[in-house]
């Protein structure tokens, strides 16, 4: 099977909409007067970044809110069952209500079930760790991980971890196929709506100019390469999956150590990623059964 075309614009696809809501519009503007909702959503995202739990100090730091405000909101969410607090480790975790909500929502978004066979094939054929990530606004979120057989692994990516679009190979693969105006907005100096720029948090190698250069390379080959930009020696490659409207909404990726990603092997890994991303895209773009 051939891989996805590396052409700048993704091909048109079926416009029939799935029975469940599509992904939220990118860069949606907050509703006026809904500050508390935005703060709660932010805190839920921050807590979910680390499956082993997130300490209060880290949540305060990354939210930009005051410690009393964060503690009050987290405590309120815990009272509703949305969060749990580990009093021994002093960390916050998702609560049982989030699990229930996720279980109900999973039926509307069967991407994990559709992509898992591709992750298994990628891990078996390459020996590397394979991942599925989803776009959520200005970020990617890792949903699934399938371990490969190679004994040395990279642990930069794991379920629940979030990166800005343009950071990590999955986000680069998605960003490369977005309209130019949207890319410009995402790479604006405001740093994707945060209080600091991407480069300030992730290093000068993630400056807008550097990201744009990587985007151009991605558009030529069709797949993205992260040459140890997040953690030295930890490499990654990714390919985008497209929804029915032809927009990139997810990405498959592989991660491993630098010696496993030599230029000659990158072409092999890249084609495998493109083939599997194309498989999932074609399934997603099939008209729903009536």
TrEMBL record:
Pfam families xref list: HTH_IclR (PF09339), IclR_C (PF01614)
Pro residues bias locations: 18-28
The keyword Mitochondrion belongs to this UniProt entry's keyword annotation: no
InterPro entries linked to this entry: GAF-like_dom_sf, HTH_MetabolicPath_Reg, Tscrpt_reg_IclR_C, Tscrpt_reg_IclR_N, WH-like_DNA-bd_sf, WH_DNA-bd_sf
Keywords: DNA-binding, Transcription, Transcription regulation
Domain of life according to the entry: Bacteria
Stretches the record annotates as Disordered: 1-28
Record SUPFAM superfamilies: GAF domain-like, Winged helix' DNA-binding domain
Family matches, as Gene3D superfamilies: 3.30.450.40, Winged helix-like DNA-binding domain superfamily/Winged helix DNA-binding domain (1.10.10.10)
Domain spans labelled IclR-ED: 97-286
HTH iclR-type domain span: 34-96
SMART domains: HTH_ICLR (SM00346)
Entries under PANTHER family matching the protein: HELIX-TURN-HELIX TRANSCRIPTIONAL REGULATOR, ICLR FAMILY (PTHR30136), TRANSCRIPTIONAL REGULATORY PROTEIN (PTHR30136:SF39)
Name recorded for this polypeptide: IclR family transcriptional regulator
Organism of origin: Cryobacterium flavum
């Amino acid at each position: 099977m051939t891989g996805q075309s590396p052409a700048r614009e993704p091909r048109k696809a079926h416009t029939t909409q799935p029975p469940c809501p599509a992904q939220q519009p990118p860069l949606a503007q907050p509703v006026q007067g809904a500050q508390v909702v935005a703060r709660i959503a932010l805190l839920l995202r921050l807590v979910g970044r680390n499956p082993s739990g997130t300490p209060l100090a880290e949540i305060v730091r990354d939210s930009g809110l005051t410690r009393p405000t964060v503690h009050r909101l987290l405590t309120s969410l815990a009272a509703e069952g949305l969060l749990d607090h580990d009093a021994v480790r002093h960390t916050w975790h998702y609560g049982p209500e989030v699990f229930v909500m996720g279980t109900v929502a999973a039926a509307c978004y069967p991407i994990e079930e559709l992509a898992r066979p591709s992750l298994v094939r990628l891990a078996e054929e390459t020996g590397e760790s394979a991942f599925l990530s989803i776009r959520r606004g200005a970020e990617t979120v890792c949903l699934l991980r399938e371990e490969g057989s190679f004994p040395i692994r990279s642990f930069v990516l794991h379920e629940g971890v979030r990166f800005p679009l343009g950071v990590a190979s999955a986000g680069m693969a998605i960003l490369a196929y977005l309209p130019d105006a949207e890319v410009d907005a995402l790479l604006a100096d405001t740093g994707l709506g945060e209080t600091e720029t991407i480069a300030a948090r992730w290093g000068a190698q993630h400056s807008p100019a550097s990201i744009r250069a990587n985007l151009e390379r991605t558009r030529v080959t069709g797949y993205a390469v992260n040459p140890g930009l997040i953690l030295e020696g930890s490499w990654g490659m990714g390919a985008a999956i497209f929804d029915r409207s032809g927009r990139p909404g997810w990405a498959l990726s592989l991660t491993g150590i630098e010696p496993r990603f030599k230029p000659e092997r990158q072409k092999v890994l890249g084609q495998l990623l493109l083939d599997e991303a194309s498989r999932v895209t074609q399934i997603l773009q099939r008209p729903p059964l009536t």
